[in-house]
Every structure is written in C-alpha cells, then in structure tokens.
Design a protein that fits this description.
The protein has helices spanning 2-13, 18-33. By secondary structure, the chain is mostly helical.
Length: 34
C-alpha cells in the first residue's frame, strides 16, 4: 500500500526529471521519515 501511494506521487513529480527526482526522493525519504 505504501508503495502504491509513492508510485503516483513520484510519477507526478518525476514528470520532468524522473531520474533526478527518483534519486532525490530516495535520498530525501530516509531523512524525512526519521
């Protein structure tokens, strides 16, 4: 379920920079979660 919510959210933001946003989201996700 968590993955499903991240899919649409990431796709919307990665419309212009899918590669950059993908890497940034993964790096910003851990610190933000903490």
């Amino acid at each position: 379920m968590n993955n499903n919510q991240s899919c649409p959210s990431q796709k919307s933001d990665s419309t212009a920079l899918p590669s950059m946003i993908s890497s940034s989201e993964i790096v910003i996700h851990p610190p933000m979660l903490n």
